[in-house]
Amino acid sequence: MSDTEIANPPATPETTGTTPVTARRSTAARVAPLIGWAVLLLVLFLTPVYVPGEWLSVLCWIMAGGVAAMGLTMLIGQAGQFSLGQAFFLLLGGVTYTVLAADGDAEYIGFGLPPLVALIGTIIISGLAGAAFAPISGRLRGIYLGVASLSLVFLGYYLSHELPMLAGSASSGRYAPTFSVPGFDFGETNPQLLLLNVPMGAAERQFWLFAGLTVIAYLVGQGAMKGRVGRGWRAVRDNEAVATVMGVSVPGEKAKAFAISSAYGGLAGVMVVWWYSGLMKPDEAVELGTYSTYTTIALLAMCVIGGLGSLGGAIAGSALVFGLPLALPLLTGSNQTVDASGTAFTPIVITNLVFGILIVLIVLFEPRGLAGLGTRLRNLIRR
Amino acid sequence: MILLSISDLAVRYGRSVKAMHGVSFDVPDQSVVAVLGSNGAGKSTLLRAISGTLSLHGGEITNGTIELDGTRIDRMDPAAIVRRGLGQVPENRQVFSRMSVEENLRAGGLATPPSRRAAARAAVLDMFPKLADRASQPAGLLSGGEQQMLAIGRAMMGEPKVLLLDEPSLGLAPLIIEQIGRTVTEINERGTTVVLVEQNAMMALTVAHTAVVLEVGELKLRGDADELKASEDIQRLYLGGHAESEEHADAEQGEAAERLERRRKSLKVWSA
Fold it and tell me: Could you point out which of A151, A246, A301, A364 has its C-alpha 20 to 30 Å from the C-alpha of B174?
C-alpha cells in the first residue's frame, strides 16, 4: 500500500489539513447551484416574451423528447438495463391521458377527469405498466432485453389499431383537452395575460408548462440518482452478485428502474399529445411516426449522444435529435425551398446524418457524450 | 452460544454436479472460524450456500439446514439474510470500480436502517482511516490492498453479526496479508463473528480460534486452530516446510530432473 501513498502525495494534506477552506468552499458550492437555478428559472420564465412562437414550439418538442430520454438514460446509464421500448410508453401515456381526461361518447371511451388528475393518473399507470414488464426485464439483459422491449412498440402499434375507441383512429385520431388548472388555461388564452406588454398566447403558455414539467422531472430524477435509489441501481449495474450480498434486491431494483423510466415515458407521451394541441393519433406505420421504432431509436440516440446516465445530457441529446429537424426549416426559411432545390438534403436527412456522425464520434472520442464534454469544459474553466 | 449453525449441508450445481455433502459445523458467537481447503474443495460453495446466493451460480441446497441466530436462513432471499445480520466480502474484492470510495461504502449501507448508518460509517472510517482520505476517488484506482480494505469496510457498513470473508489474501503481498489478518482480529474484537475462507492456511490459522478443512465437498478435519497448525496433515497439505515433506519434496525434485533429462534425450533424437 506504501506505493500508492508515494504516488499520490498531495491527496492527504489537501483533504485533511485545510478544514476551514473546504468549509468555506462548501458554502460557496451550496449557494452557486441555487443562484444558477434562480437564473435558469428566470430565463425560462422570460423566454416566451422574447422568443417567437414557432421557436417556442421547437423548444417544447425538445423538452418532450428530453423527458422521455431522461427516463431512458436513467434506466440504461444508471440501472444498467437496456430498452428499445420507450416509444411504447409515450403511446401508453398519450392514450391513458386522453382516455382519462377526454369526455366519453358513443365512439370513444373517456372519463372526463380534470387534466391535473388525468396527468397524475397517467404517470402512475405508465409506471405500473413498466413494473409489469419486470418479470421479463429481470430475466433478460443486454441486447436480449432490448429486443424484448422493442416488441412493446409493435404491441402498442397493434393495440392502438385494434382499440380505436381508446386511442382514436389512425386516420383522424381523437382529441384530449390541453392542460388547465382552475382559473388558468395553458392551451388557450383564458384568462388574457400580458407580460411586459407581450400577450401570452397558447404557445407561450405551453412553453411555461413544458419547462415546468421538465424542471420537475429533472429534479426528481436527480434526487433519485443521488440518493439511495440511484446507489442501489448502480450497485446492480456494476455487479449483481455483490449487490445481492449488500442486501439489495436485484429484481426489485430492476423493476423500480423500469417503472420510473416508464413513468417518464408516460409523462412525455402526455406532453406529445399537448404539443399536437391535444390530438392523440396512432401511427399509420410501425416504422415511422410519433410512437414508432424510429422514435424509439431516436430516444436511444439522445441518451448516447447526451452521455448515458446524465439527465442534462438527455435534454442536450433531444435538442439535437428532436430539435434539429424542426429548427432547420425555420433557419433555412421554409420547407418548400428545401424540397424545391431538388436535393435529397431535407432537414430530416441532415439530422439523421448529424446524429449518425455524432454517435460514431462520441463512441470513439468521448463515451460520456455531451455530458462528458460539459464536464471537461467546466474543469477547464475552473482551472 | 452458537450464532451460525450448518448441519448436514449438501449442495448441487445443475442436475448432476454434487459440490458438497454432509457438511456440519457450528460457528460460536464472537469467534473466528477458518475454512481451509484447496481449489475446488467447496469453500466458495459453502459461502454461497450461507449467503443464499447459490442460485446466482446455478446451484441449490439439496439437503441440510443453515441457522443464523436460531432462524433458518437456507430458504431465505439473500437480501433478507443480509438484514438478519450476515455480511459478505466476496472473492477478488469486487469493489464497484466505477463508483467512488464513499459511494461504495454507502452502497454497503443500503440495507442498514437510516438511524444506524452514521454510526456504522464512523466505525468503518475509524478502522480504515485511509478510506476517508480517498473518499472521492474511484474505487478502481485503489491498490489491491486498499480495495480489500474497502470491500471489508463496505460489508461492515451493514453492521453484520457474522462476516463471511472469501479469500481476502488472494493476490496480495505478504505484508498486506499480515495487515488483513490484523484487521480480521480487530473486527472480531469489536464484536463481529468472522468466518474466514482461506487458501493461505498460515494466516488463517494465526487469526482463527477454530478451523474446519474441506476436501472435495466434504468436511475432512475440524478443531482448534492451534492444534490444526501443529497437525501433520495440515503441515503437509497446506503449510509445507516439514522435515518429512522436505524429504518427499527432494525425492520429487529428483524425479522431475530425471524426467526432464529423459525428455532432453528424446529431443536429441529429433534434433540430431
Answer: A246
